[in-house]
Amino acid sequence: MKKLLLSTAVILMTTTAAIAAPVVGEPAPVFKGMDTNGVQHELSDFLGKTVVLEWTNHECPYVKKHYDGGNMQKLQKEATDDGVVWLSIASSAQGKQGQVDNATANHVMKEVGAHPTARIQDPSGAIGKLYEAKTTPHMFVIDAKGVLAYAGAIDDDSSFKPDGIATAKNYVRYALNSLKSGEPIETSSTQPYGCSVKY
Amino acid sequence: MKYILSLALAFFISLPSMAQDDPKATIDVFASQSAVQAGGSIDIAIRQNIIDGWHTYWINPGDSGEAMTIDWELPKGVSVSEVREPTPDKFFYDPLVNFGHKGQPIFTQTLSLWPKYSADSVELNGTVYWLVCDDICIPESQKISISLPVSDVTQNINQSIFEKAKKSMPRQVDWNTSFVKKGENVVLNVSVPSDLHNQMLDVDLFPTTWGIVQTTSDVTSEIMDDVVIFTAKSDDRDLTTLTQASFVIQTGNEAYEVTANLKSAESSVEYSFIFILGFAFVGGLILNLMPCVFPVLSMKALSLVKLSDKERSHARASGIAYTTGIMLSFVSIAGVLMILKGAGETIGWGFQLQDPIVVTVLATMLFLIGLNLMGLFEISGCFTNIGSNLTTGNDAKSSFFTGVLATLVATPCTAPFMASAIGYALTQSAFVGLLVFAMLGFGLAFPYLLLTFVPATQKILPRPGAWMDTFKQVLAFPMFASAIWLVWVLAQQAGDLAIIYILGLFLAIMFLIWFSKKSTSKLWKGLLALLLIGVFGFYSAILSPKSTMNYEPFDNAKLENILDENSDQAVFVNMTAAWCITCLVNENTSLSQVEVQDAFADENILYMKGDWTNRDEKITKYLEKFGRNGVPLYVFYGAKNDNGMRPDPIILPQILTPNIILETIQGE
Questions:
Q1: Which of A153, A178, B206, B419 has the smallest number of Cβ neighbours within 10 A?
Q2: What is the mean pLDDT of residues B221-230?
Q3: Which of B581, B635, B638 is nearest to B613 (CA)?
Q4: B63 Cβ under 8 Å from any chain A Cβ
Q5: In which element (H, E) is residue B314 found?
Q6: According to the model, what pLDDT value does residue B486 have?
Q7: Chain B residue at shortest CA distance from A23
């Protein structure tokens, strides 16, 4: 006879709305968003092209780590030159760190020489929560068929110290190169690191 | 007096943050001792002082953030351990959750000095990096240093800090723990001592690495017998990349850290059960090809070739008997294993091979079978039943024992090849485990069973002929090879000496076989069999593990010193060598006996042992002093008598018994 005691089970999942968590190897959740120039983008607009999603907050030290040395801009340039669509997404809520109006956002991007296809403003956090974006930066790569190919950190050096960038393995670059050459992506899911997204 | 000075020298600096004007956290460093000894170690504590409303991060920071790092610049001869960290708190930033610390968390490290560390003091500089967040995050760092005198005189300091640190940290426990992904959940099975079960009903679970448990997940507990089962929502990491993970289980009053092994995922019990049985069956089939088993099976199969039609029905009975023999043997070995395991022994399959006697028996058996296959002798009924009529008989009894034999000779092969599969079986319930073993046995027996039951399959066997003898002889070689391997195993277990004993045993066996062919006298054969048993008994006595007495290596200068000085110390000198059989027998039968060891301890006798295995001038001279030119030599120097005179040294005989030693040292 087994004694069986069950303690209370309270599911704390108070996460809003998310229909299904994004899973690598399955279709990426579709979304709509307005960019800093007032243009609306839909994920389905980009079918046939590889899409990179970059969660950003320009005041977060981890984002600064990748922008101050030009690392992120370089990757953005490489990717967009190659025909990849790069969407930087800011999901900071109204009044939280990283939330700025369109003009300021464009100014910041120009100042650091950022090279995304567009920067999407997501102050409601709808897209962020749809993708369960946890950190800035948090990176997603979606292949030409709309399937999520990579989710996680930008590289394998999770420290806020910038010394490691040069030697770190950049997962996004690896993923893009693998997609380009039609090879399977070796590391397709990693732990994102950085500041939390300021929902 | 001296320690006051040490205390004054032991001070700890923590410079203010270097980069930040208005740091959200600062660091203080403390040492647990006022000084540190060369070759010794002390604890150091690193305390974060975090301002209200902000937090830093645990080793697994949760959804975001980063754990503190300490970069010490370590001088030569100084090392520090991993950082020990307090149990974390949860910080909720809907929908994200972080694991971290607030207030004044204290981390500790152990600082150790090499024994040869020669400087007067230890000066340690380092930098601590941490991320501190409320709604926003700020990376901060601070230079720290610690300065301690190196001294044997030391005392505890900062005790309250270290007590507080210890209280805030999870207790490291070695509870047997496994984890597995089951659908959407991660299930953790922990063997928690029963007096703590009540604490386990409402816990928080913190994996020390990312991606195992969703940070937002609650944990349910279920208590089944001795095991507490925790269930939580699994995160997206592919768990097959892990083999182990550590978890901190935080109860209301205390936290425990366990290390869990990953159990391979099972989708459903029924499916996996049948799968495992099938796997075991195939494993058993493969065993037939192992070098120790193949010859046995081959000879058994070839015996069928010679059968006339009339004997076919006997063949079936023989097949069943063979199968029963194998399956029963497997199940009994497994049963014994499970009982021993249940009794808390830490053993696995192949435990049989951990006993030198069993290894000896197996090696001898393989050697005998090899000789038999070579045609050197036919085992006749009077000698032993096991393995009899390997090649000819098909009666049920001999087939049963052939099955037992096949299992026994298969064990040395199963141990290395099947270890993981059998290991898995042993983690299942007793019933499942035994079934798996039975299936393994069935697989081993199956080819022969098939041959006896389906006559058509016998057609694949070649026609009998002279080739069978050649084939049989060839099969002897895998047997000898297996025997050689076991002799090597034995040497690892029982030392080099075991090789000469087991090869001596083989020699005796060969002699017996040769002699029994020469002589027809039953008396002689009987006597020789007794002799063989005697050799074996002697051999077992030598091999059986014994505690050896602590000794001091022979040192003539030290001995002279003790004898010259007015010391009262009694000394027993043993001069020995590895190649001296008498010496080793004496050590095993007399010097290592408990009563002798006790007597040495009671009488406070210094036991000195000189090893003459290699040339040694000093020992040779010592031997000459007693008119000897070889070992063994045993000399006892008694303690002083009542007149303050030391009695003459006593030379003991070259063949010792415990009594001789006891009488000598007790002066009777």
A1: B419
A2: 82
A3: B581
A4: yes
A5: helix B312-342
A6: 81
A7: B236
pLDDT value of position A142: 95
Span B277-332, pLDDT tens digits? 787 788 788 777 777 677 777 777 776 666 655 566 677 788 888 888 888 888 88
What residues of chain A lie within 8 A of the CB of B136, using their CB? 59-60, 97, 195, 198
Smallest Cα distance from A40 to chain B, Å: 26
Count chain A–chain B contacts defined by CB atoms under 8 A. 100
User: Each residue of A128-161: pLDDT tens digit?
Assistant: 999 999 999 999 999 999 999 999 999 998 888 8
Check: complex ipTM more than 0.85: no
User: Has residue B269 got a pLDDT over 50?
Assistant: no
Instruction: Tell me the CA distances in angstroms from B399 to A151, B291, B293, B317, B384, one per residue in order.
Output: 62, 20, 15, 9, 14
Contacts 24+ apart (CB under 8 A), B123-128: B123/B75, B123/B147, B124/B72, B124/B73, B124/B74, B124/B75, B124/B78, B125/B72, B125/B73, B126/B70, B126/B71, B126/B72, B126/B73, B127/B70, B127/B71, B128/B27, B128/B46, B128/B68, B128/B69, B128/B70, B128/B71
The proportion of chain A whose per-residue pLDDT surpasses 70, expressed as a percent, equals 89
Q: Give which of A67, A54, A87, A82 is closest to A154, Cα–Cα.
A: A54
Instruction: Give me B224's structure tokens.
Output: 């089944």
> In a mutagenesis test of the B interface, which of A65, A129, A196 is the best target, namely the one with the most B β-carbons within 10 Å?
A196
Rounded to whole angstroms, the Cα distance separating B275 from B334 reads: 20
Selection from B443, B505, B457, B53 nearest residue B283 by Cα: B443
Residue among B66, B221, B225 whose CB faces A193 most closely: B66
Is residue B545 very low, low, confident or very high in pLDDT (cuts 50, 70, 90)? Answer: very low
- Six-digit token string for A4: 């069986």
pLDDT of residue B12: 42
Which chain B residues are closer than 8 Å to A132 by Cβ? 95
Instruction: With CB atoms and an 8 Å threshold, state whether A192 touches B133.
Output: no
Least CB–CB distance from B218: residue in A4, A12, A59: A12
CB B287 within 8 A of CB B410: yes
For residue B95, list chain A residues with Cβ-Cβ distance below 8 A: 14-16, 129, 132, 199
pLDDT band at residue A17 under the 50/70/90 scheme: very low
Return the residue of A nearest to B212 by Cα: A191
Domains and CATH numbers, chain A: 45-196 (3.40.30.10)
Per-residue pLDDT at B535 exceeds 90: no
Question: What is the percent of chain B with per-residue pLDDT over 90, rounded to a whole number?
Answer: 17
Per-residue pLDDT, B343 = 61
Q: Cα–Cα distance between B551 and A150 in angstroms, integer? A: 65
**Residue of B218, B220, B222 lying closest to A4 (CB–CB):** B222
Most A CBs within 10 Å, among B59, B63, B129, to test the A interface: B63
Which domains occur in chain B, in start order? Answer: 2-169 (2.60.40.1250), 172-262 (2.60.40), 270-355+381-465 (no CATH), 552-665 (3.40.30.10)
What does the pLDDT look like over B52-79, one tens digit per residue?
A: 999 999 999 988 888 999 999 998 889 9
Interface test with A, best of B236, B237, B238, B429 (most A CBs within 10 A): B236
Instruction: Find the helix or strand (DSSP H, E) in which B128 lies.
Output: strand B121-133
Q: How far apart are CA B112 and CA B75, in angstroms?
A: 11
Where residue B88 falls among pLDDT bands split at 50, 70, 90?
Answer: very high
Chain A residue whose CA is closest to B96: A134
Cβ–Cβ of A199/B131 closer than 8 Å?
A: no
Interface of B with A in 235-294 (CB under 8 A): 236-238
Of B63, B93, B224, the CB nearest to A4: B224
CB contact under 8 A, B133 and A135: no
